[in-house]
Amino acid sequence: MSEHCIFCDILNKKAPADIVYEDDLVIVFKDIRPQAPVHLLVVPHKHIRSINELADEDRNLVAHMIFVGKEQARQNNINKSGYNLLFNVESGGGQVIFHLHLHLIGGYVR
Ligand code: AMP
Ligand code: ZN
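^ thats the input. predicted complex w/ adenosine monophosphate below
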């Protein structure tokens, strides 16, 4: 990887983050600028630039990311109230960190 990546630094424990879950495939940490009471990022260990760069072999990884998001929603008690699972894709889609990540956003009082 040629460009510096802050999420790879977090994965390698070279940059700080509020990590709430980690397994062989993904890490989950709190978004540094939360948009809602619960705002977590599900980040694969594998450095993939965006959804556009997914390969066939990544199907199970992406499914796992969604299942981890679902479980984190339950653990944060926002599964019943509801939440967003969101991928921003490239600059026009609002992506600013070019290491694939799934936003889990919820906990608004409505
Ligand atoms: P995106 O716009 O989809 O690329 O989202 C990137 C997200 O990463 C934003 O919501 C940022 O607030 C968040 N972010 C950036 N740097 C960090 C960091 N060091 N630790 C935690 N979250 C971060
Ligand atoms: Zn990376």
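The mean pLDDT is 96.
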